[in-house]
Design a protein that fits this description.
CATH architecture of chain A: Alpha-Beta Barrel
Largest interface: A-B, 23 and 24 residues
Number of strands of chain B: 9
Shape of chain A: globular
Strand order of the largest sheet of chain B: 7-6-5-8-9
Strand content of chain A: 15-25%
Number of domains of chain A: 1
CATH topology of chain A: TIM Barrel
Low-confidence stretches of chain A: none
Largest sheet of chain A: 8 strands, parallel
Oligomer: heterodimer
Number of helices of chain B: 12
Largest sheet of chain B: 5 strands, parallel
């Protein structure tokens, strides 16, 4: 099928603003010239942007991804059983096709237990686009160094969770006034910087490309900023929750705001915004982890961490543009361009030869987040009730109009 | 204290305590706390008579749902309910269907369907009582949830202090022990601070939570310094599971640093009152000579005030459903 998309303003990641441009798609890819016998698609009044590449999700939840303009996602290995063998990885690569592409991240260690190395090369051959420590931390620095050595040799990015497990223990909240008032098990926020510091040393030693999946504290970003200035091959990400909410959101024991890493103090939240604005952050992702009432309607410390973030990712991220922290073009580097580059996939930009993953956005369209009416498998959003702006009107995956 | 002394302290009718539940001290206004204390006085008096009975809760069902083991608090709530004429049922949920995998929400819905008129809940997890309260129609009283709050303990402590010392406002009160994990400490810090006391807490650095400044509480790792001129010394129970391990090295080291003995008590005000929520670890957090001296120790009185305060709470929270005038 061939398509001509007219009337829209096209947004190229990195460019400051969208510009009027007609797009041509043939055989699932963007092409230079108008293809023969193409169907015309009217994109009048909309912004055409590359489909979002969501780095690090916990479920293949197509309705939510399509709602949110996400055309590809890197799937975390935290499955039952974990993605620690080539067969599981291979079947994960097929789990979304044809209208959604899943790029699995292989478990760094067997069973994600942090002790024995998983078969990274075989998993890469089966389609893994990266390696991940999962929700947890690899406590043993020797194991971590060897994982990084393999990842570097195989040219696979390593996705790490940054919380020192010895400090966090069973904590469910960041150390401070809110956790003290609520009597929740808490850990000092510097548990994050401590683990980042170690992993930066190991990255330098091994030459691995380490992606710090969620950095959420001022001290964490200071370390990342410094390491980037020294030329280390590292990248880092964040989700909208840590950009727009502080630990006050858990008041009243709201389990939808129980996240890992936990929501931080307001000073840290402001440091996260600053890190997006100054270019330290490479990726904004949803952290999509739909959890039903059996996981969330529990006492706070017993509830599972995680949020259904896919549907709110774009609207929340557009808030960064409205607040003047980033340009539209920069935002789509964070949402599409950079994640595709980290995974090494030909996506995340609008250029001849690239897979035609395209979303048409009404950036100012208002709507209200409602946890009871979500496309996702579960409505565990910490943004419940929030009025937001920005909606995906159409989604094209590999040249096929999905919605 | 007579009615005329107190009438001006708080608004009339349900405005004096406009809450459906008692989930914590946080969120209570000072006059609401004083209202409960004033109401409790009548029950202190009645409980000292030979015949200790009132019928105001006759026909009502009180369920004590304890998801964590307790002897004292459960007994205290049971006696409180019975002295007011309620039908009291105790549910030892620690050994019941909860063990069979029933969720807390299902248990709450079940209790609600049995048409309880008030439910008292203790649970090991912070916030669990609020979760249940959101699911039931009757008043819920928190008898301790995790490390969060134990409001009736704070109220009975406040009543005890007020009866011994008069006004709580301006008193220097030192709380010592495992503040990090203690719901008793949390409720007392908020309650006594709200009533105008100067609250200090002392304990090992590993057991003092961050953010105390925001609660208007001063933290000390040096117990001696925290005791300087204290009018009230409140000792917390050291839980058995924390006696030795990652938080403190051993009971004897703990006693060496934080045990209340004669020498330490001499650093407090000459007429300092000693309190403990019980059960005590004698020789660990408190020495027997102090605990057993009725002139200095209010520990037995605390237990007595506990019944009266819980009677007051049950009475106040059921006024709406009983259709009491001004409380509809």
């Amino acid at each position: 099928m061939s398509l001509i998309i007219t009337g829209s303003h096209v947004l190229h990641p990195g460019a400051a603003d969208p510009a009027a441009q007609t797009l041509y798609i043939a055989d699932g890819r963007f092409v230079e010239d108008a293809p023969q016998g193409a169907q015309t698609f009217d994109g009048k009044g909309l912004i055409a942007a590359p489909g979002i590449v969501d780095l690090g999700v916990f479920a293949t939840d197509k309705p939510a991804f399509h709602f949110g303009g996400i055309t590809r996602a890197a799937l975390m290995p935290d499955r039952t059983p974990p993605l620690d063998d080539p067969g599981a990885v291979r079947s994960a690569t097929r789990s979304g096709k044809p209208d959604f592409w899943v790029h699995p991240l292989g478990a760094a260690t067997k069973g994600l237990a942090g002790s024995e190395l998983a078969e990274l090369a075989l998993m890469k051959d089966a389609g893994a686009r990266g390696v991940a420590t999962g929700r947890g931390w690899i406590a043993d620095s020797g194991v971590m160094l060897r994982v990084m050595g393999y990842a570097a040799a195989l040219d696979l990015p390593l996705f790490v969770h940054s919380e020192d497990g010895g400090l966090t223990g069973h904590a469910v909240a960041t150390g401070g006034e809110t956790a003290t008032r609520l009597g929740l098990p808490q850990a000092p926020a510097m548990a994050e910087a401590l683990s980042i510091a170690r992993d930066l040393m190991l990255a330098e030693e091994s030459g691995a490309h380490v992606h710090f999946r969620q950095v959420t504290t001022a001290r964490g970003f200071d370390l990342i900023r410094d390491a980037k200035a020294r030329g280390l091959r590292i990248s880092c990400g964040i989700t909208p929750a840590h950009l727009f909410l502080s630990d006050i959101a858990v008041t009243g024991f709201r389990t939808f705001a129980r996240l890992s890493p936990p929501l931080r103090a307001e000073e840290d939240r402001l440091a996260c915004i600053a890190a997006v604005a100054d270019g330290t952050v490479d990726v904004i992702s949803s952290g999509h982890d739909p959890r039903g009432p059996e996981d969330k309607r529990l006492p706070f410390a017993d509830a599972a961490p995680g949020m259904a973030g896919a549907e709110t990712l774009l609207a929340m991220a557009l808030g960064l543009v409205r607040d003047g922290h980033v340009s539209m073009g920069r935002l789509f580097e964070l949402l599409s361009g950079n994640p595709a580059r980290i995974l090494g996939v030909e996506a995340g930009r609008i250029a001849p030869g690239c897979e035609a993953d395209l979303i048409l956005i009404a950036p100012d369209a208002p709507w209200q987040v409602d946890s009871s009416r979500m496309a996702a498998q579960a409505g565990n959003t910490p943004f419940d009730g929030l009025p937001v702006q920005g909606r995906v009107r159409h989604l094209i995956k590999g040249g096929v109009v999905i919605k | 204290m007579t009615a005329s002394d107190t009438a001006s302290r708080y608004p009339q009718g349900s405005a004096a305590f406009p809450h459906a539940n008692l989930l914590g001290i946080a969120g209570l206004q000072p006059w609401e706390i004083l209202f409960v204390l004033d109401e409790a006085e009548q029950w202190v008096a009645m409980n000292r008579q030979a015949s200790k009975h009132d019928d105001r809760l006759a026909g009502l069902t009180l369920i004590n749902a304890f998801f964590e083991n307790s002897t004292r608090t459960l007994l205290s709530f049971e006696i409180a309910g019975k002295r007011l004429g309620a039908d009291v049922v105790n549910m030892h949920a620690a050994q019941s269907s909860v063990k069979k995998g029933e969720t807390l929400i299902d248990t709450a819905v079940t209790l609600n369907a049995m048409r309880a008129d008030a439910i008292v809940i203790r649970h090991a997890s912070s916030g669990a009582v609020q979760l249940i309260a959101d699911k039931v129609d009757c008043p819920v009283l928190n008898a301790g949830d995790g490390s969060h709050e134990h409001p009736t303990q704070a109220l009975l402590d406040a009543l005890t202090i007020r009866r011994r010392k008069g006004d709580i406002s301006g008193l220097r009160i030192t709380i010592c022990g495992d503040v990090l994990h203690s719901r008793v400490a949390r409720s007392n810090m908020i309650c006594l601070g709200t009533l105008g006391a100067e609250v200090r807490v002392a304990g090992p650095p590993a057991l003092l939570p961050p953010g105390l400044d925001a609660l208007n509480v001063t933290g000390y790792t040096d117990f001696d310094a925290a005791l300087d001129g204290a009018d009230v010394v409140m000792m917390l129970r050291l839980q058995n599971e924390r006696m030795a391990g990652p938080f403190i090295p051993s009971p004897r080291e703990y006693a060496y640093l934080y045990g209340l003995d004669e020498r330490r008590l001499s650093l407090a005000a000459p007429d300092a009152l000693v309190m403990h929520p019980g059960p005590m670890n004698r020789g660990v957090e408190i020495s027997s000579t102090i605990a057993d001296d009725p002139k200095r120790s209010a520990i037995v009185e605390q237990v007595e005030m506990g019944v009266a305060v819980r009677m007051a709470c049950l009475d106040i929270l059921t006024r709406r459903s009983r259709g009491m005038e001004g409380w509809a």
